[in-house]
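Lecture 7 notes. Example A: sequence first, then its structure tokens.
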Amino acid sequence: MPLSPAVEVNGLVKRYGANVAVDGLDLVAAAGQVTAVLGPNGAGKTSTVEICEGLRHRDGGQVRVLGLDPVRDAAVLRPQVGVMLQDGGLPNTQRAADVLQHVSRMYADPADTAELSERLGLRSFARTTVRRLSGGERQRLALAVALVGRPRLVFLDEPSAGLDPQARRAVWDLVGELSQDGVSVVLTTHFMAEAEALADQVVIVDHGRAIASGTVAELVASGGTTTLRVEAAQPVDAAALAAALGGRFTVDPAGRTACTVSGPVDPQLVAVLTRWLADAGVQLIRLELGRRTLEDVFLDLTGRSLR
């Protein structure tokens, strides 16, 4: 018999006054897998996750976490769910080691704090107060606090934000081990490489709705598997080039002259592009053919304009 989803959200609605932050969102996070929730700032992903964590009340829809209601059944869920908030939610005046030890005492069968400290490199700042920790050190402590209770399900909000490459790799390895041990993980991230490295499933959220979901391979293949990236010395007339290439063209934001063509790319398309640039008097700096990435999919679905 297949396992029930770790998280199941149907038609979720959340309003803040007149603003609808979550607008009928559907999301499923499978048990024992890593589910990455991606979206631009203001897309509704943080509100959705906070509702699943029981930190906010929903205005409509259904939410089940480990088969239970996150508000009504909070007392039952709390020992089974680990939460890593982006701001940490840690007491500023306490030392890092004391915080971890204090939280561990709240659980009947906590993880070995010494081992967890070693894995996440906490020993070097164990006696430092939370207030004096760097952003990356706070992140590592917040992750340790989320995991010390041996949860069945973990919510991680931007787990590698502010981490150096070594710490990021240690966090990724630990998340991978959690999944191998059958722990369900739901993470939000703006770091596409993180989602590509860790996620079994990806859900892309925008304007309060889930607009795409699937494995990284499925999402990348959905719009063709190759991209053609061009960098020019002068600004490109986006509308004219899009017309010449049949609409398969986007210009990066902030006035950059780079452009991208997504989908199958053949020699004829390359010839049309280079001829158009030459006729327009645009000097070509670089032309690069490569594989489509999760970031390409994300930008195609959510747009390239700053918000």
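Example B, a different protein, same format:
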Amino acid sequence: MPQRQPFIPPPYPFDRLDEVREIAARHPQGALDLSIGTPTDAPAPAVIEALSTSNLERGYLPSIGTPAYREAAANWLNRVAGEPVIDPANLIATVGSKELVVGLPHWLRLRRPDLDTVLYPAVSYPSYAMGAELAGCRAVPVPVREDWTLDVAAIDPADAARALCLWVASPGNPTGASEDLGAIAAWGRANGVPIFSDECYIEFTWDREPQTILHHGIDGVVAVHSLSKRSNLAGTRAGFIAGDPEIVGFLAELRQHLGLLVPGPVLAAAIAAYGDQGPVEQQRSIYRTRLEQLIERLSALGIDGPMPSGGFYLWLDITDGDGWELANHLAGELGIVTSPGEFYGDVSDKHLRIAAVRDLGPR
């Protein structure tokens, strides 16, 4: 029997930006880090108040979240969707969303040990592929069209037959593309492949109303949400999954054995955040303004930065050179640290992502 080789973690993508950071630091206004989608704006005061006064520090709360949390999250999603799409019974808390993204392939393989493949967008958040690799699964990228949306028709039937799940993100990271979630849900049901829809930018859409895959029913689909972007709470780690009762129920039982739970004070803060839409509307305006300012500054440098369909990233198409060359150029010209496209897939090396998470200022 061949001996299995030890896993050696690859360099974390954003740890590779030291040279870009050094160039940006030499700018007269210093370095401005726009490489990671880390919120920098303040959470709502009511959320901080709830976090600090919950009196829920002691005791173990349910891994799936308290009834109040699940109801608040379901009410929020139904309100954003514009119609009832989910019941709290089919929604459970998660520790942010990255825990779920990276852990999911391993957990789904326990559910279906006969399957070994994770399908994910060829240009996407790198954790979809890493989760598959850490679980010893096949990570199979799905081609994207010219508008950066998933081309599910291009999935090899042999890969679909082995698939534990298909990941989709809408609006997508890094491209900001908005998917036809109804068509993707239909493909998943036709092929018996669960669809996991990463929707953490659902309220930051610029050319359409917010969309969730749950608009198209809950059978065979799971929506993944997080308060990290919506409410500037990345440091508190609060999110949820909602959808297919059997899949959500399986993950609920499994996560309970793993001891994964959102701390009580965070649940209290999250309930306050889900109940107040005002701060999110303010944040939408902030991100839109920052995107427009970035587009204007890039245009002055002769660089085209199209407005995304959603999200708070600019995804630049590079005619000459590659993402690293443009990252170094922008570090020198504007003092900004950005992300070369190769971080998001082998087919996107001639692209660059800029996160509109800070004000550019007079650079």
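Note on Example B: The CA atoms of residues 221 and 241 lie 10 Å apart. The chain is about 35% helix and 15% strand.
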